[in-house]
């Protein structure tokens, strides 16, 4: 292997189907970015509907019923929300604003789940509208019951979120959670639900674990099954288990690229190869006397089992307590299964376009590419997702072959890099080219975008097919009938 | 041979020649260092004992817990030794990936703490390594701990400097082998043996074997993970090569089936890696050479690992009366009843109602007077023949009527004249408003 080839370390994104077709249409991309500016967000509402269908297929394979609630926090696009409303999906909202958003998008109340930290206003609207309230604590249930009583509202369906599940055999450690009632001390929960029986209807129990680890989720689901049984013995009638989200996404096209990049990062941290990151950043790894310490603090960008496949794997996992697959146990009990995928439902649903402003050398042998956008417009660094953008040249690509470059943002801050990883592109970018950050609809789009330094925030447009051509409209102008005037 | 303590049996393992007809090398004598002969079953017995022996006196009085980051043989040896000396043992691990080892550790009285998986909604500032978390967890309990620290403890290497290495030289009549091949886990055995062999003869070639990335061979680290090992020094090895789990299993099969050596996957990997490396050299040799590889442990603990990767090795003859053998026609012809018809039949004929769901679910809610036989157990019973009289009508129920239809079809094929499946299962029964009870 020659030294030159060794230095190129692509992490090419996995781009499929409609998103691939759209991002291959370079004239179209330049036209919309020219008209609407950089940064620019693209969303594909039809794709989210197809993703929901893939989750439903897993339900059918396991003979399970219950709702698939999209975790709204992953993306605030109206087009995506309305597309899901159009195909009978559900929505998991985590604020008063999100609740208003989905009610206005046409979700029926029984298909809305209110989660997250809750203000009294949020609780009132949830109860008034008749959505399911996923409660984090006993206090929250008491507050809700008080609001229902004071305002003579109808009985509210509630889920009780649990956390801190016990495990059998080995002790499966889990990160401490801000949310939920300890599964090992549910007595006060059943008491408050029994006391307010006329105001609160216990639909079931819930968990949401922030982990990619299957054994932890299996232990939690086991714990929910026990809690449901316990609730039944306390005279309550729960019918559903909500297992939250966290099914994950596979961002990269090639496992080999991910494996060799992470190996090379280790080598770079040990000083055995030139750095692959800005200022030799180790992403959590550090060199202590020639030995690597710390853990790699990045999202596992290549995953062989993610999204609906991960749900399927979880349902096939055997319960340690009952020695039977968890999916079969849920079914045996006639329970409904609720899930709240965010990222996984937005697979292949969008991209962020940034225009190249300037390309130069930093005098230390590195190429810096300044783009019209910043680290809050594409959340790669904030969410630890490492992947290359796609280069969309305006004219003839520069000669000279592949280029490794650092992407700097438009904020007047040393720390404003789109990613601290050196990204690799098929040729050196030129001013006026676009960089397309593919598959960024889930959490990476405008999750924390703001108006720092009064730089413009991205407009979002919805792209949809009309025959072979791509059409678009502003995100808030999209409805499931848009572009389908020929149909009824 | 008489011993005062089982720990006196650690070490002095045999060196056994592998038949040239098996490995096919013409100019190289290949020897296996049989570490599986250690009393607790692996090469790790040496390191475990050497790291802990001098710290045992008074440890029980001080209320210490033996702690190690291990999911395998080191944990096993430490659990045994801790138990012998009245100390608790706690193993902290990223994941217990081999179920037999996990069960064995629990049987030995170990406490196993599995660390959480990676965060899905990532906090890039949270980069504590497992070791840091372990120290927090253990000191939070207020008691002292005896951390053997196998990845950084030089006593791990010393166990092999004073044991394994000199034993090999003695068994080769005072000569170092020309080639030494070992898998790299903690790097203790490979570093310790390499140090001794090189001191004896600087010309020895040391080959380190690591697992291919994203592959998993119990006890071997991959090329990234070795860098997290304090004892690992790339300078120890003349060559570092990767082996796949497939190759390790091929090697294991050769050792267990043809060499009378009941080696686990690490030993299999070392054998396969050794032969692969030596084959390239063998062709060009004129004189005789000697090579040694290490057989780390025994095969029995890895049956489920092997079953996952090579299910064909465990092929069972097809069993009689299996639902898997049903044809589409037989399934389509399964006798079924809808809820209303089933209710009428129950009143008229009082069939035996068999609920195939889990006991846990059955206990919560079921059709009155039904009995519960969970489906997989019911399937087991049917392998032996009809479990009830042909004159006894039977109604089978499951959640949605799918499994019950399969078993109804199977019982019909087995000659039962009056078995039915409840269409739509208990869910349809509930949705029709029919009674479900909790006894």
From TrEMBL, chain A:
Cofactor needs: pyridoxal 5'-phosphate
Keywords: Decarboxylase, Lyase, Pyridoxal phosphate
Pfam families in the cross-refs: Orn_Arg_deC_N
GO biological process terms held by the UniProt record: lysine biosynthetic process via diaminopimelate
GO molecular function, one term: diaminopimelate decarboxylase activity
Protein name, entry field: Diaminopimelate decarboxylase
PANTHER family referenced in this protein's UniProt entry, alphabetically: DIAMINOPIMELATE DECARBOXYLASE, GROUP IV DECARBOXYLASE
Keyword check for Ligase: no
InterPro entries hit by this protein: Ala_racemase/Decarboxylase_C, De-COase2_N, De-COase2_pyr-phos_BS, Orn/DAP/Arg_de-COase, PLP-binding_barrel
Residues covered by the Orn/DAP/Arg decarboxylase 2 N-terminal domain: 47-256
UniProtKB/TrEMBL annotation, chain B:
Domain (Rhodanese): residue spans on this chain: 347-438
Needed cofactors: pyridoxal 5'-phosphate
CDD domains reported for this sequence: RHOD
Alphabetized Pfam families for the sequence: PALP, Rhodanese
Keywords: Pyridoxal phosphate
Organism annotation: Actinoplanes xinjiangensis
UniProt-listed GO biological process terms: alpha-amino acid metabolic process
Domain of life (superkingdom): Bacteria
InterPro entries per UniProt: Cys_Synth/Cystath_Beta-Synth (IPR050214), Rhodanese-like_dom (IPR001763), Rhodanese-like_dom_sf (IPR036873), TrpB-like_PALP (IPR001926), TrpB-like_PALP_sf (IPR036052)
Name assigned to this protein: Cysteine synthase
SUPFAM superfamilies attached to this UniProt entry: Rhodanese/Cell cycle control phosphatase (SSF52821), Tryptophan synthase beta subunit-like PLP-dependent enzymes (SSF53686)
Lineage of the organism: Bacteria, Bacillati, Actinomycetota, Actinomycetes, Micromonosporales
């Amino acid at each position: 292997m020659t030294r030159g080839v060794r230095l190129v370390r692509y992490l090419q994104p996995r781009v499929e189907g409609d998103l691939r077709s759209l991002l291959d249409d370079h004239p179209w991309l330049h036209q919309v970015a020219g008209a609407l500016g950089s940064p620019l967000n693209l969303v594909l509402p039809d794709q989210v509907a197809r993703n929901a269908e893939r989750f439903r297929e897993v339900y059918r394979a396991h003979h399970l019923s219950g709702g698939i609630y999209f975790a709204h926090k992953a993306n605030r696009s109206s087009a995506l929300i309305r597309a899901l409303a159009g195909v009978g999906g559900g929505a998991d909202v985590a604020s008063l604003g999100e609740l208003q958003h989905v009610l206005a998008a046409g979700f029926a109340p029984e298909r809305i789940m209110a989660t997250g930290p809750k203000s009294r206003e949020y609780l009132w609207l949830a109860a008034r509208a008749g959505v399911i309230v996923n409660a984090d604590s006993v206090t929250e249930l008491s507050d809700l019951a008080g609001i229902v009583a004071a305002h003579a509202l109808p009985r509210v369906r509630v889920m009780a979120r649990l956390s801190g599940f016990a495990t059998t055999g080995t002790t499966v450690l889990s990160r401490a959670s801000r949310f939920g009632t300890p599964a090992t001390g549910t007595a006060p929960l059943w008491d408050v639900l029994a006391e307010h029986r006329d105001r609160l209807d216990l639909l079931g129990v819930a968990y949401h674990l922030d982990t990619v680890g299957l054994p932890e989720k299996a232990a939690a689901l086991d714990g929910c099954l026990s809690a449901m049984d316990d609730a039944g013995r306390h005279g309550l009638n729960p019918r559903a288990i909500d297992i939250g989200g966290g099914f994950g996404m596979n961002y990269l096209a090639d496992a080999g690229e991910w494996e060799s990049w992470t190996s090379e990062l280790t080598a770079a941290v040990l000083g055995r190869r030139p750095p692959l990151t800005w200022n030799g950043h180790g992403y959590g790894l550090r060199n202590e006397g020639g030995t690597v310490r710390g853990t790699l603090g990045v999202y596992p960008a290549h995953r062989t089992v993610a999204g609906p496949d991960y749900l399927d794997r979880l349902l096939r996992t055997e319960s340690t307590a009952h020695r039977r697959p968890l999916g079969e146990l849920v079914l045996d009990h006639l329970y409904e299964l609720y899930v709240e995928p965010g990222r996984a439902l937005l697979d292949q649903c969008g991209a962020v376009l940034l225009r190249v402003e300037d390309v130069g050398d930093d005098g230390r042998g590195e190429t810096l590419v300044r783009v019209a956008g910043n680290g809050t417009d594409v959340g790669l660094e904030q969410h630890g997702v490492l992947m290359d953008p796609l280069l969309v040249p305006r004219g003839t690509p520069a000669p000279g072959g592949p280029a490794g470059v650092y992407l700097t943002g438009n904020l007047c801050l040393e720390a404003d890099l789109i990613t601290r990883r050196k990204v690799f592109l098929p040729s050196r970018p030129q001013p006026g080219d676009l960089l397309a950050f593919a598959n960024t609809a889930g959490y990476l789009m405008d999750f924390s975008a703001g108006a720092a330094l009064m730089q413009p925030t991205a407009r979002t447009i919805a792209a949809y097919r009309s025959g072979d051509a791509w059409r678009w409209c502003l995100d808030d102008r999209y409805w499931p009938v848009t572009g389908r005037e020929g149909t009824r | 041979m008489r011993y005062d303590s089982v720990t006196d049996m650690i070490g002095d393992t045999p060196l056994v020649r592998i038949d040239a007809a098996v490995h096919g090398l013409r100019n190289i004598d290949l020897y296996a260092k049989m570490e599986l002969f250690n009393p607790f079953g692996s090469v790790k017995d040496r390191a475990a004992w050497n790291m802990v022996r001098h710290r045992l006196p008074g440890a029980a009085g001080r209320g210490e817990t033996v702690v190690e980051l291990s999911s395998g043989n080191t944990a096993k040896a430490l659990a045994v030794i801790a138990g012998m000396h009245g100390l608790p043992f706690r193993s902290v691990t990223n994941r217990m990936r081999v179920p037999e080892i996990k069960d064995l550790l629990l049987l030995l009285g170990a406490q196993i703490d599995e660390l959480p998986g990676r965060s899905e909604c990532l906090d890039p500032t949270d980069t504590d390594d497992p070791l840091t978390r372990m120290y927090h967890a253990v000191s939070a309990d207020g008691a002292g701990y005896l951390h053997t620290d196998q990845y950084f403890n030089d006593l791990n290497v010393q166990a092999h400097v004073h044991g394994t290495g000199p034993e090999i030289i003695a068994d080769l009549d005072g000569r170092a082998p020309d080639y030494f091949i070992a898998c790299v886990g903690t790097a203790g055995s490979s570093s310790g043996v390499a140090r001794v062999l090189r001191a004896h003869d600087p010309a020895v070639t040391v080959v380190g074997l690591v697992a291919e990335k994203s592959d998993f061979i119990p006890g071997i680290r991959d090329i990234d993970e070795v860098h997290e090992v304090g004892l690992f020094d790339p300078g120890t090895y003349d060559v570092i090569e990767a082996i796949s789990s497939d190759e390790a299993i091929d090697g294991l099969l050769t050792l267990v089936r043809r060499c009378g050596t009941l080696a686990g996957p690490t030993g299999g990997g070392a054998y396969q890696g050794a032969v692969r490396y030596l084959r390239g050299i063998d062709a060009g040799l004129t004189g005789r050479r000697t090579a040694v590889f290490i057989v780390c442990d025994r095969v029995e603990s890895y049956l489920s690992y092997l079953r996952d990767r090579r299910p064909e090795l465990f092929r069972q003859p097809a069993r009689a009366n299996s639902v898997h053998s049903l044809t589409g026609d037989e399934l389509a012809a399964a006798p079924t009843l809808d809820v209303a018809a089933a209710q009428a039949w129950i009143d008229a004929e009082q069939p035996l109602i068999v609920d195939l769901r889990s006991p846990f679910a059955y206990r919560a809610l079921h059709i009155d007077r039904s009995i519960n036989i969970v489906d997989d157990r019911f399937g087991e019973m049917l392998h032996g023949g009809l479990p009830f009289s042909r004159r006894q009508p039977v109604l089978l129920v499951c959640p949605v009527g799918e499994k019950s239809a399969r078993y109804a079809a199977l019982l019909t094929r087995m000659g039962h004249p009056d078995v039915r499946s409840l269409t739509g299962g208990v869910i349809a029964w509930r949705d029709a408003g029919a009674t479900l009870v909790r006894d």
